[in-house]
Amino acid sequence: MRSVTILGATGSIGTSTLDLIERAPDRFRVEALTAHSDVAGLAAAARRTGARIAVIGDAARLPALREALAGSDTEAAGGAEAIVEAAARGADWTMAAIVGLAGLRPVMAALAAGATVALANKEALVSAGEIMIAAARDAGARLLPVDSEHNAVFQCYEPDPARIARIILTASGGPFRRASLEEMRGVTPAQAVKHPNWSMGAKISVDSATMMNKGLELIEAFHLFPVGADRLDVLVHPQSVVHSMVEYVDGSTLAQLGTPDMRTPIAHTLAWPQRMETPSARLDLAAIGRLEFEAADEVRFPALRLARAALRAGGARPAVLNAANESAVAAFLAGRIGFLDIAAIVEEVLAHYEPDAPTCLADVLAIDAEARLHAERRMERVTA
Ligand SMILES: NC(=O)C1=CN([C@@H]2O[C@H](COP(=O)(O)OP(=O)(O)OC[C@H]3O[C@@H](n4cnc5c(N)ncnc54)[C@H](OP(=O)(O)O)[C@@H]3O)[C@@H](O)[C@H]2O)C=CC1
Ligand SMILES: CC(=O)[C@@H](O)[C@H](O)COP(=O)(O)O
Ligand SMILES: [Mn+2]
Question: How many domains in the chain?
Answer without folding.
Answer: 3
